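Course assignment 3, question 2. Fill in each field.
Student: A.L.
Task: Predict the tertiary structure for the chain below.
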Amino acid sequence: MIFNLENPPHRFRCECLVIGAGPRGVALARAFRQAGRDVLVAERRTYPGGETISANRLWIDPAERKALDRLLAPASGWVVDPAGADHGALWPDAYKRALEDVLIDSGSRLLYHVRPVRWERSGAVHRVIFAGKNGCVLVEAALVADTTRDGVLAQLDPRCTERPDGGVISQTLEFTNTREIFGGGASIDHEHAGVRYRFYPGGHPDGHVLVDCRWQGAAGLAARRSRAWQTALRLGAKERLVHLRSTFPGLLAGRLGSIAREPWLAPARRAAGGGAPGPLAPFVTGEGLLVFSGSADLGDDEAMRLEEDLPLQLQLAEQLAALTPVGGGVDFARELPRETVQVDVLVVGGGTSGGAAAVAAAEAGARTLLVEMNSALGGTTTSGGINSHWLGRPVGYNQRVLRRIEEIDEDPYSPFASSQWNVESRAAAMLGLAHEAGVDVALGTCPVAVTVEGGRLARALCATGDHLLEIKAAVTVDATGDGDVAVAAGAPWVYGSGRECITMWYAFLPCPRPGTMRSNFHSLVYVGDPEDYTRAILSARRRLPGYDHATYLAPRETRHIKGRDTLTLEDQLLLRRRPDVINLAFGNYDIKGHSVSAWVRFGLIPPQAMIEIPYGALVPQGVHSLLVTGKAISASNVSLPSWRMQADVENLGYGTGLAAARAALAGIEPADLDVRALQGELVRHSILPPEILDRPLTPAPDEDANTLAAHVAALDDSVSLRSYQHQKPHEVATEVIPFVRVCLAPPGIEPLLVGALSDPSRKGRKLAAMALAWRGHPGGADLLHAAILAELEGAPPARLPGRHPLTLHAHEDPDHGAMSELANLLHAFARTRDPRGAALIETVAARLDLEDARFRDRKTGVFYYLDAIGDVAERLATPACAPTLSKLLAHPLLDDTVLRAPHQPDYFRERQAYTALVLSRALARCGVRAGYERLLAFTEDRRRPLREHACNELRALIGDAEPRPERWRAWVLRQTQFRSRAWNEKDDPFAAILPNI
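Answer field:
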């Protein structure tokens, strides 16, 4: 369970806990470390910089700059000087890295995306429980400092009071490509309808302008807790945009860069001081909490002065770090105030699928609450920065969203118009559609815990910025993309590929300039682990540095929830039709990473096809009143690349929301829903085509001997398996590939395939041999061995054939299965378990050039050869393979690849580490102690996916189900000899959860 307030799964201890990674929090953490204290910094966002960065207030006066120069490295490029301006401008990416570097260099620990929800004290120990994307976290500390402006933890002291309503609200709008805004001056002040606008030159040279929109409003706690106020604030930005562009012609040529993710607000609370002597007394409560913000025990004017005086904050940090607050002796346990909400449908996650699900449920008449952890709806397509579609079926609800984006973009005062969308336009479109449908939207809200009663998901507890929502829903939709709610409720699941913990790479998109994103896919992340999530962010921010990065780390793949039915790649290849189809998906096999699919390893990259998503894949096992939508549905890891396109996931979400509403309003379980009636509704909404309702669905006929013989006769070596992916952009496969038919044919086809090998006139002998290998039959080993030798003889001396040049959409190794024909043959030969494999991999390894440049060369395919060597060796599991593996692992690029640092800017090192791990597990399966020792070393890797990979392998080899590295080390030390344990897919424990992984 990842969300559990009573028994948090993640636990940390430190001497000093600092809540908030703004400049004052970073300065305080460094001062604590300089005093020799152990420090952990907890930040609710995915970046440091606090309210300054979240509100996009990037202008900085000379006094602030001078103060920050003492905290940050001046040469790190965190500030620039706009021409003619009397102020500097923060360069967001460099500023974030500089703040992170202060923490890392000082030895402080950092956790991103955690927010406090409960504060306990027992004796001299503070216990603070946090919630966030990665579950509940408990931190025990002797001293706690709340540096957040609103004093989120301070409010739990019953003596904390609210400041008066009517504070200032500020929202910053960012533009690029503007023309002649400032004229001869460096600033503009403008006022209209109670809003004061002040223009600041930004740090980017391309007509970069920041507009501070400020007005007096009800900014007290009651307003901030109002979900309607949050929605109105976001939607109201459109009115301010229209006014600005109609008033300042120079903005008409510009593009909207962003709308501030959070408004800048005056402090809303006043803590009760008195826990320290002298002038620092306002900053320490009687219960020993250090409150370092405008929420300290200061008057309203003093509080605002502190918030706007950065030099004073940094000066105070050094003084406060010398304190040792001592609180009262009364133990207590307090949590954020709760609000109880009862609805028909709760949708958790407001991304592509969740936003659609909420609108569908509300339009169907259900009272619907949508909770989204980011500051805007859209998930990957807004906060994640992915601003265009790649294939998919642009029909149904997806078209409604695109039309709304066009309406926003075609406005005469629109900030942006393009074939792609501006992420702010999409966020506005999705929020507008939800608002019009009557959806109750809670932004900046994430799950904390769930309650399951009698197998039914009865309640969900979610955390907003400063209070808890206890939500009772008839039906809940898990649209988190990661199955967060389903996992917390006890549904079975697999992470990525299971055994290897391989997923498609995550995206943390860089912004080369304001308002633009650059697509990139680099590494693995383990959602559910706050340390690994933070590591991934730290690493990604140091890759492709530019103006900024997206605020949401968008995983392409994480968990797969086990459902009533499971979607497999074989379903796609067989063009299987489903009686309970709820959505059609269309895409190319867009892997974006390393595939462990046997089909891909044999050279078959699946063609574009219409993939039918069954309703049963949305219904999780073991939990009632819950539906899962988006990429976490019950599907195998190797099936995901084709059906995960944004347009299709959006329509899938709409269908899921409609199903949830129908079940909730009828008072039945989602599993008992009349899917036929649901399909009729989806046809009406243009999500399913009408023929779905009328087509005959007859079972496939039994394949007799004549049919099997015809399948074998259809094999043709002149048709490359790779050629099936060479389709026009909207071409759809309508015939099952002969090789697929043969591989998936019932028992009895093996003698026919062996017979084909004996006839030299047969045109499909090589494919017949590969099909036998795919089925685990050794009959084709001789032909495959000969084909491998021919490939080696045809290659230049001391070289191996490079990656196949005709693999579409391939990036850096290993990607899209772009391996050479020789690597494909080696993987096929591996499944024959022929002893000649040991000599083959020795020959291949001798020809490998493991220089760093060759690793990085997109033409060489070094990764694929190493992967194939590991595949052959672990299936043979013979000492004869050990010398080859040992020699490869002794190479400097593969010898010590365990990550011990907090981050790794060079993503290629992670890919090399994965390869070293594959070779290490093969060495262990050959019965060599060094293989076990290398696997044990990986159990200390900072990258959780690699650590899980090593633990999964050690569990299988040692036979201990619990992840206990220390016990495993003792076991390895006691052994005098290790037996060989050949790898077999039938032994994979994850296959029982999701077949064909």
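Instructor remarks: The longest strand covers residues 338-348. The first helix runs from residue 23 to 34.
Grade: pending
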